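Recall from the previous chapter that SMILES is a line notation for molecules. Here it describes zinc ion.
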Amino acid sequence: MSTQMMPAQENCAECDRLWEIYTQAVMAHVKIVSRRHKAALQDDSAVLDEIEAIEAGLAQQQMKARRAIDDHEAEHEPV
Ligand SMILES: [Zn+2]
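With both inputs in hand, we obtain:
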């Protein structure tokens, strides 16, 4: 069982691609969370509604990307 942050597979382009997608989803999510905090401080409910919708989508994307990595890594297991 490997529960490392960045499992080092040897030169697997698919791993690189999936981690890239995941990293981008995480960063986009972090960015929107900080935007939400700002909108909350400014009590900007119109922006907050908009941001919450975007955030829900990003959370989904992040989960999907994480699952894609898990699925793909399962295929790496030695038979
Ligand atoms: Zn791989």
